[in-house]
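In response to the reviewer comment on reproducibility (Comment 2.3), we provide here a single inverse folding case reported in full, input and output, so that an independent group could reproduce the run without further information from us. The structure tokens appear first.
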């Protein structure tokens, strides 16, 4: 059944602490209030094989996934967490030695039948946050934070995204843990 999807809320991030063939571990998800928009673009390399005087087959390979998210504000404590910045008193310093963490990004949208479409993108590396401000010029407009993240599949199982349409799963349950495999998905319906 076709469903109309609209809206966006409930940005969450979770730091990825381990990704091996044997296991995956995340820190507890943290909420980011003020979701404005998100764009997810999987990059696929393709090559057409020609035979018998025409296109015979297309070979495809997923490379990385470009994600751009806009939030009303990315608080300084979250910036420090994801970019590895150091705080000295009240001042936060960015350094060439900072190391951005790998993280999961979760969010949800509404669907027409009253439920929600939930997402987790499972392993991404954020790019440094640009600084963009402008004068008010006679009217006041907010200046949102836009974060770009390069996502890739997990080494553990090759998954890069979890997605679910539901009328019964709540945001509290979906965002309690990162949903990255069958066991974490099965826990949602118990």
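Designed residues, in position order:
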């Amino acid at each position: 059944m076709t469903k109309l999807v609209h809206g966006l809320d409930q940005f969450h991030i979770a730091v990825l602490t381990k990704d091996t063939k044997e296991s995956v571990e995340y820190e507890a998800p943290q909420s980011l209030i003020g979701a404005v928009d998100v764009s997810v673009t999987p990059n696929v390399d393709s090559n057409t094989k020609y035979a018998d005087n025409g296109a015979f087959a297309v070979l495809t390979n997923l490379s990385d996934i470009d994600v751009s998210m806009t939030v009303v504000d990315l608080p300084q404590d979250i910036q420090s967490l994801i970019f590895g910045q150091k705080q000295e008193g009240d001042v936060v310093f960015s350094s060439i030695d900072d190391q951005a963490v790998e993280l999961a990004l979760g969010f949800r949208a509404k669907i027409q039948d009253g439920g929600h479409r939930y997402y987790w993108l499972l392993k991404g590396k954020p790019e440094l946050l640009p600084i963009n401000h402008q004068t008010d010029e006679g009217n006041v407009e907010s200046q949102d934070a836009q974060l770009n993240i390069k996502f890739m599949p997990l080494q553990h199982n090759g998954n890069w995204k979890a997605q679910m349409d539901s009328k019964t799963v709540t945001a509290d349950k979906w965002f309690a843990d990162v949903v990255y495999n069958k066991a974490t998905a099965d826990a949602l319906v118990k």
